[in-house]
Design goal:
There is one protein chain. The longest helix is centred in the middle third of the chain and has 16 residues. The chain has a seven-stranded mixed beta sheet with strand order 1-7-6-5-2-3-4, with helices on both faces. It contains six helices and seven strands. Helix 2 links the parallel strand 2 and strand 3. By secondary structure, the chain is of the alpha/beta class. Helix 1 packs parallel to helix 2. Helices cover about 40% and strands about 25% of the residues. It has one domain: Endonuclease Chain A (Endonuclease, Chain A), CATH 3.30.870.
Length: about 170
């Protein structure tokens, strides 16, 4: 049985902070927009990066996939700088440079907890915007989402696999 919880607006920030602190094995994040506020220690995004770094120091394996498609030059520049910061903290990070835009917003913790929805990881999304996401706690669903994340991470989707995901096959 799955536990499902709606996560509205700013509750997302405390929820993902709690999930990061509780993570034991892995955290996988795919996101369109991660607007890290460099040198603003009180900003929510700065705090999230610090929590991710602490989880990494505890031995949690972290992978973050950031949009850097050619259609969003401003994000590519911001995400390139964040990529360097995360790598310096020992966090695996990749820039999505495919022609398609990575518009997903998904966090998977320990292949069991999934938060998916409209929230980007930006100070606006975490403190000002009207956003709705869903937290689903279920090992089967977490495994399915993890498999999709793993394929995106490796970006080895064939045309056949893309059609299957899109339900065209």
């Amino acid at each position: 049985m799955a536990e499902i919880e709606l996560v509205e607006n700013w509750a997302y920030y405390s929820l993902i902070g709690d999930l990061i602190r509780q993570a034991q094995n892995s955290i996988n994040i795919a996101t369109f927009d991660f607007l890290f506020q460099f040198q603003k220690e009180k900003s929510p995004t700065f705090q999230i990066v610090e929590k991710l770094a602490a989880a990494r120091e505890r031995g949690v394996r972290i992978k973050i996939l950031l949009n850097a498609s050619p259609h969003y030059y401003h994000l590519t520049e911001i995400h390139s700088l964040l990529h360097i910061t995360l790598q310096e903290k020992g966090i695996d990070c990749k820039l999505w440079r495919a022609n398609e835009t990575l518009h997903a917003k998904m966090i998977i913790v320990d292949r069991t907890e999934v938060v998916i929805g409209s929230h980007n990881i930006s100070d606006s999304a975490l403190t000002k915007n009207i956003e709705i996401s869903v937290r689903i706690t279920n090992p089967r669903f977490g495994e399915k989402c993890s498999q999709i994340f793993d394929r995106l991470w490796c970006y080895d989707l064939t045309t056949k696999e893309k059609k299957k995901i899109l339900g065209e096959e």
